[in-house]
Amino acid sequence: MRLINSIFLGSLVFVLVLSLVPCDAGEIIKTKVSVYMESLCPDCHAFIHIRLAPAFEKYSDYIQLDMVPFGNAKVIHHSNGSVEVDCQHGPQECVGNLYEACATNLLQETDPKKLMKYFDCLTVNVDRTDIKKTAKTCAESNEISFDTLSNCVDSNQGQDIILGYGERTRALQGRSGVPAVAFDDVFKPDEQDDIVFKFEKILCEKLKGAKPSDCNAV
After folding, report:
1. Which of these, 12, 43, 83, 126, is most buried using a 10 Å CB contact count?
2. In this structure, are strands 63-69 and 31-37 parallel, antiparallel, or unpaired?
3. Please, what is the angle between helix 131-141 and helix 146-153, to 10°?
4. Rounded to whole angstroms, what are the CA distances from 27 to 19, 23, 210?
5. What is residue 75's DSSP assignment?
């Protein structure tokens, strides 16, 4: 009987010890990657197409995608109470930002892979004279409802989303331009050059928990 009790107590202690062990290092913990950009910025296009999209395709299980299309735009408050957004590369960029913002609002939580493909399409096929045409083409090629996006763009919803992104962008201390990238809501100005040009390497360094085997080759 004493032997049985000893075995039982030993097993109980073993179970209790196991329950106190931290989460396995093999657990996947998504890292939030916030990308601050604007729709007609050449540097943003290069970063998204050459660095971000390929890395997201590889590491989508490890990334919480957070696109923030606003960039260097300015918000103008008029005396009559109306609000206007003035974009760095002109009115067409404001249209592009709106379509990207509405797509982000629609897909970021439900289908980030589709969202990433949409952004990549916009950077590769951009028509600077008619960005709405590009937005429509890319929506259709990625099976996104263009009517849904347009309804958002043409409503107060689109403006509210953009103004919210503007607040977030202006809150980045030390930002000098776009693209700008923050990991888990931490923005480090002195890391931006490395992030933009060595995104996959920096991403792998920032990942918590299990790291994909591809990181070993970076």
Report:
1. 126
2. parallel
3. 140
4. 16, 7, 5
5. E
CB 11 within 8 A of CB 183: no
The tokens describing 64, both together, are 């919480």
Quick one: tokens of 78? 């008029």
Q: Where are the alpha helices (DSSP H) in the chain?
A: 2-20, 42-46, 53-59, 91-107, 112-124, 131-141, 146-153, 156-170, 192-197, 199-206
pLDDT one-digit tens code per residue, 161-189: 999 999 999 999 999 999 999 999 999 99
Assigned token pair, 153: 């763009």
CA-nearest of 183, 175, 203, 141 to 70 is 175
Partners of 36 in beta bridges: 68, 180
Enumerate the domain spans of the chain: 39-213
- Angle at 168 (CA atoms; ends 90, 124), nearest 5 degrees: 45
Tokens read off for 196: 């933009």
Query: Per this entry, what is the length of the chain?
Result: 218
